[in-house]
UniProtKB/TrEMBL annotation, chain B:
Keywords: Protein transport, Signal, Transport
Subunit-structure text: Monomer.
Any Pfam family matching the protein: DUF2092
Annotated signal sequence range: 1-21
Protein name, entry field: DUF2092 domain-containing protein
Superkingdom assignment: Bacteria
Amino acid sequence: MSIRNLTLLGIGLGLFAGTTALMSVSFDVEAGPHARGGARTSVNHASAPRGGGGGGARAANANRGGNANVNRNANVNHNVNRNTNVNRNTNINRDVNIHNDIDIDVDNGWNHGWDDHPIATAAAVTTAVAVTSAVIGSIVYSVPPSCVTSVVNGVAYQQCGSTWYEPQYAGTTVQYVVVNPPG
Amino acid sequence: MRHPALITGLCLALAAPLAMAAAPPKADPPAAAPAAAPAVQPEAVAALEKMGKYLRSLKDFTVHADTTIELVMEDGQKLQFPGTLDYKVRAPDKLQLDLHSDRKERQMFYDGKSLTVYGPKAKYYATVDAPPTIRELLGTVESTYGIEMPLADLFLWGTDQAPTSALKSAARIGPARIDGTVTDQYAFRQEGVDWQVWIEAGPKPLPRRLVITTTDDPAQPQYASTLTWNTAAGLKDSAFTFTPPKDSHRIQMVAVDVVAVEEKSP
């Protein structure tokens, strides 16, 4: 499915669901170029097995760009808040993930990601901001600007209408997990 | 009967240019001679080992790096992003890192017991238990949290995590000035990377510039850094301790799953 269709689908869902959160999916998914990988920032790998001679310097973390396409989030859908149509969105996560390679670097104007390794930080990604915003357990890299920080029992959440996100670091990237409203 | 003749003619016609084409290499030995030099020059390896030994002797230092990193777009186009990073280090178990670019900022604090990652704009920080030395820390952040520490080589050269046996070629290129300092430029090749280092001449064989070309992507993106050192920084303990700023919030840091391992094969 093309990204354009994703946008339209998202808007359609937004209208259908009548929530501002879903409307926000119409951010410009098509704008940026999509990164496939980046330069290594070290010759040697810190996690390489010690004492291994003979060019064994590349070990566990040999891969970079490929990280972007892993969807572990979408199928956690318990349909807590929204209509069942949300399930369809799992089909297009891949497109959106790639886009995140670029946008991942910017949190509310600039802050996501490890300066020198933005691609690896895209591991275990996500979906567009609001397409599956209602799906508990799904992960996004940014939340709508209208969200507010709410601290409940010492945990910082982003509350966006009736949708709650718990921020967490994945590597040095902040990602937001959709959670049930804290009680 | 015509056919054999024709074929013979063709063969001759084909063979002539081939013979001519094959000739030049024979005439070329003098020009090809430089390529016959040893792939791994002992002189270059020695310089690398000397630098590594000197780096390992540093106990209290800061290093500032002006960096550029290239990202490869899906269509092969490369984009370049500038930035800076600053390490404060007290060997073997204290480290602080500031990363800045026009897009991102992060800080990292390591005091020998825990590691804190902080984003000054979002004001989120995460603290996790950490191993007792910098070298072990680097492995942990890479394998457990998926973070490739930029310029980790600074901590690995001179150790068995940067074996010179991995060098496929090593060569001294020649003298060069970096920010007015006399250095020697060296070029190395390893699996997946071509790299160059400019090592300061004289009693402090510090790396002053490092360029890493990633060769397992056909677009060959580069990471370049120019380094400024203070080898006797006099750092205080407080430099390595994170104090949560007002309005900051602690959040969790999730470990990477098996993703990176799965994706090694393609």
